Amino acid sequence: MDTPLYGFSNQPVIVEGIIPLPVAIGTPPMQANFMLDFVVVKVPSAYNDILGRTALNRLQAVVSTYHLKMKFPTKHGVGEVKGYHTTTRKCYMASCRSKNKEALIIEDLQEDTKMQRGKLVEELVSNEVYPGKENKTVRIALGRFMARSAERCLPFFKAIKKAKNFAWTDDCQKSFEELKTYLSSPPLFSKPLPGEDLFMYLSVTKVAVSIILVREEDGVQKPIYYVSKVLQDVETRYPKIDKIALALFISARRLRSYFQSHTIVVLTDQPLRKVLLSLETSKRLVNWSVELGEFDIQYKSLTAIKAQALADFIVECTSPEDPPQLLSRDYEARDERMAQYLELVKTSASNFKNFTIHQIPRDQNTQADTLSRLASAEVTDVRRSVYLEFLKKRSISSQNEIGIIDKEPCWMDMIIKYMSTGELPSERQKAKNLRVKAARYALVDGILYKKSFSLPYLKCLCPSESLYALQEVHEGICGQHLGGRTLAHKILWQGYYWPMIQKDAIEFTRRWDKCQKFSPVTHTPIAPLTPVVSPIPFPIWGMDLLGFFPMASGQRKFVIVAIDYFTKWTEAESLATITSAKCEDFF
């Protein structure tokens, strides 16, 4: 058989050959026996052999995949072949899961974690030096986990970077003592469970980045792996968010097996996810984001550190705020609110003989730190008792109040004053006009209403209230962005009135930019259109000669008439004689 086979993935499979085999299907006495030709292919599969349509047709079998049964006729009755759910599930899992890769990852993780758990460094290092030449240098390497190894060994790197000027400094001696102390009490590492979510903390300094991978068990976070790296020349000048992204990128490469088999939850107080997914970032961050996209990584805000080891890890990696970094100068309170607070402090300070102001370091100001974390943390994350005080009002007033004005002057003042007290202007004409105008209004409980012929009383509005009514009806919850006249009528239907309502509504809609851009434009002509008979209508004229008429002056007794067929315009002239020259002169 030279023709290749095509599987479910539509890929050609080369046929190795054909082998005939005797097949017995069913259980005696209801059993079918016959020879079948099997095609041999070199393809990994969870099944030893597969029966095709040829075998099923020869068997006259009926297959039910739902019941995992196959029935076929025999000489002694109906034969039956039954499958088992456990076997089918094993075959399905074997075809979908890669055993070799999974076993390799588990064995590597088990070997490392078993070696690190419960043993001191002295038991791991074996100083077996074989005798040889006298002048021989022997190097012993310690391959194990070490938190912040890059930052701890940084003084050594600086000392041996220039061999000519090598000098053992106090920093080197201090780092050496810290390494001995740390190696004498190694931390215990935990083994992650399959499918378990792992948490990652990222920390950066000016010269190094550190990563710790932990798992949570019974509310306690246990470390799994540490990663550290000393930043090179260009990397030290990265922004802080770029350094954090670099730390995540390095951890994904070094801990690839964990990233592939677990969901990694990155806990950070920086907008790392937004920066990596943004299209306007640098090319460097875009490349890192593409490589990190193959893993299942989730980002959550850093609210609280639960394990004490993790707290030490983060605190040690954080740059300390030394007193030389603090500024002590005189500044001007330019902000109005800050100036009010400053005035309140000066007023309160006058009650004391003397006082000093000290800045509390961040690591000691636990109350402010806990309150800041409480704003972004869940209730279960804050284990300590936090006492909250709710202020009903601010310590300072927003503005200094001099006098409160109840209402603004408007067009209703004269009418309300006349209808309530009967007072009229001194001028006779103004008094007459006011009496006529007041007859169209009604005063109810100190509120002025406009009488209407077909509507109920309309409440009169002052200028500020009328502007609010225009905005609410035009663009409010039920606003339809109506035109000027329609807007004015709708306000009247709502029961409000002021004298310039039509003019104010038209001016308000004209000032609205979106209404000018998206308002419908009317294309209907104002008059019915006249159909055009000819594309050039004006050259079409009708001419006629009329006569004889009674003799007029100049012996004129004929009339020449011309009519435009399009505009129906008529021209006429009297003639004494009808000649071609006279007709040409007429036109």
TrEMBL record:
Pfam families according to UniProt: RT_RNaseH_2
GO function term, MF aspect, one: nucleic acid binding
Reverse transcriptase/retrotransposon-derived protein RNase H-like domain: residues covered: 168-266
Organism: Escallonia herrerae
Protein name per its UniProtKB record: Reverse transcriptase/retrotransposon-derived protein RNase H-like domain-containing protein
Source organism superkingdom: Eukaryota
